[in-house]
Design goal:
The protein is built from 4 helices and 3 strands. By secondary structure, the protein is α/β, with parallel strands linked by helices.
Length: about 100
Amino acid sequence: MNVQQLLIAQCLEILNNKNFVPDFIFIDINFKAMDGIECLKAIKKIAHLQHTPLIIYSDPTYLNSMNKIKSLKIAAFLTKPIEVTILSKKLAKIFKEKT
């Protein structure tokens, strides 16, 4: 698996490239440059990413926004902080379900 980190400034431009089809998108929705939920909505509008699992990683305060997030059909919502071993297990489960 090839992992690539994208900064928010370049994120939507790269994701709109039809040649860029990630296995999953792992995103922290708690950032200042753009509202995280609006970013998720923008990603969901990109046709070639419709079946790409979205994995949300954020602080528990975003749990209050779960109704908005659920409508986006995300694969998982992981709350900070999380141990690496737990994160690995949860991601492995998501990838197993995808295949």
